[in-house]
Amino acid sequence: MLRTISSAFTVPEIRRKLAFTAAMLALYRLGSHIPVPGIDTQAVEDIQQNFSGSNILGFLNLFSGGGLQRVAIFALGIMPYITASIILQLMTVVVPTLEKLQKEGEVGQARITQYTRYLTVGLALGQSIGYVFLFRSFGQSAGSPVVENFNGPTVFMIVISLTAGTVLLMWLGELITQRGIGNGISLMIFASIAAGIPNGVQAWWTSPDPVFKVMMPFIALAIIAAIVFVQEGQRRIPIQYAKRVIGRRMSGGGQTYLPLRVNMAGVIPVIFAASIMAFPPTVGQLINSPWARDVAAFFGPNGWAYIVGETIFIILFTYFYTAVTFNPVDQADNLKKYGGFIPGVRPGRPTAEFLDRILARLTFPGALFLASVAALPTILINQTSANFFFGGTSILIVIGVALDTMKQLEAQLMMRNYEGFLK
C-alpha cells in the first residue's frame, strides 16, 4: 500500500488528482468549522454536551465531522443526499417510470441523478427547519439562546445557509468523483469519521479500565483484518471462450474467470441502514414532547431496537444492492454473445440460474458479516463498561472506503505504467 501511494506521486496526472481531492476535502473540513449567520457562538459551546456520547445526535454529529455541534454551514453533512439516493433506488423497484429510466443507460441515469438532487434539496430544507427549532430548545434549556433574534428573517437565513451547505457538499462530492480519486460522497463520509480519530485515541488512552486499554489495540487490529479479509474475498467462476474464425484468422479460445466477491455491495448497505435507523430518533429529537423523546430513546444507537433494525436493514440492502449492481441474466447473455461459457453449465438460462445460485450463497455470509461487525461494538458497550468511541458502522465505512480508493488508485497506476509489446 505504501509503495502504491509513493508511486502515485511520481505520475503528474495522478498527483494533480490527489491534490484536487485533498483540496476539496480540506474545503469540506473548513466549512465544518464556520458557523452559520445568526448563531451565538458562545451559546453553541454551552449546548455541545447534547451532541456527545452515544445518543442519536452524537451519531449524526460524527457523520457531519463535528459540524452539527458547531452549527456550521456544513452541519447537515452529506446525509440528505444519501437518504435521497436510498429513496430513489427503492422507488426504481416499485415505480415503472423510474425502472424504465434506469435501463436507458447514461441518459436515464443522468435523469435519476437529477431527481436525486431535487429530493436532496427538499430533505435538506426540512432538516434545516427542524434543527433550527432543536437548537432553540437546547438554548432555552441551557439558559442562553443559540439563535439570536428568533424571527422570520433570521430563521430563513439559517435554513437557507444550511440547505446551501448541503447543496455545495453534493457538488463538491461530484467534482471529486469526476476529477479526483475515489467516490466523492464516500470520501466525505470517510473524512468526517476520520476527523474524530484523535478524540477516539484520547478516549482510549484516558480510559480508567486497564483491561480495555490493553485489549483495545488487539481488538481493533482483529476487526480491521477480518473486514479486509471478507471485503477482498471472492469466488472465481472459470470462463472458457470458444474459438472463432474471423476472416482468415482464428481468435478466442482463451480461459479466464469471473470474480464474484463475498461482499459485492461494499459499505453501501451499512450507510443505507444507518441513514434509515437514524430517522426515527432524529424526528423524536426534533419534536419536543414526552412521547417523541421516548421514541428517540427507544431507537437510540445503543438500544436493542436499533441493533435489530440495523441488522435487518443491512441484510436486506445487501441483497438489494447486489441485485442492482449484478444481473445474472445480463451476465449470461453477454457470455453467450461473445462465445463464453462456464465449463459444465449450458449457456443462456442455465448459466444465469447458476450465477444467481452462487451469488445468493455468497451474499448471505457477506451480509451476516456486515451486520455482525456493525452491531458488535454496540453489544460490547451494553455488556461491559468499555467506551468504544467508534461504532462498527464507522469502522466498516472507513475501511471499505479506504480499500475502494486504493483499488482505484492502483487501477490509475496500472493504466499509466503498463508496458506494451513495443517496449
What would the keywords be for this entry?
423 residues; mainly alpha; Preprotein translocase SecY subunit; 2 domains; three-stranded antiparallel beta sheet; 5 strands; 6% strand
Structure overview:
The structure is a single chain. This protein has 423 residues and is mainly alpha-helical. The chain is 69% helix and 6% strand. A hairpin with a 2-residue loop joins strand 2 (243-246) and strand 3 (249-252). Helix 17 (349-383) packs across helix 18 (392-417). The two termini are 27 Å apart. Mean pLDDT is 79; it is low at 419-423.
* Backbone CA Rg: 24 Å
Coarse morphology: globular
Mean of pLDDT: 79
Got a strand count? 5
Topology-level CATH name of the largest domain = Preprotein translocase SecY subunit
* β-sheet strand percentage: 5-15%
**By helix and strand content, what is the structural category?**
mainly alpha
Q: End-to-end span in angstroms?
A: 27 Å
The H-and-E topology, N to C, reads as: HHHHHHHHHHHEEEEHHHHHEHH
Task: Describe the sheet with the most strands.
Answer: 3 strands, antiparallel
Break the fold down into its secondary structure elements and pairings.
Layout: H1 2-8, H2 12-31, H3 41-46, H4 56-63, H5 79-94, H6 96-102, H7 106-142, H8 152-179, H9 184-194, H10 197-205, H11 210-232, E1 234-241, E2 243-246, E3 249-252, E4 255-261, H12 268-277, H13 279-286, H14 290-298, H15 304-325, H16 328-337, E5 340-341, H17 349-383, H18 392-417
Antiparallel strand pairs: 1-4, 1-5, 2-3
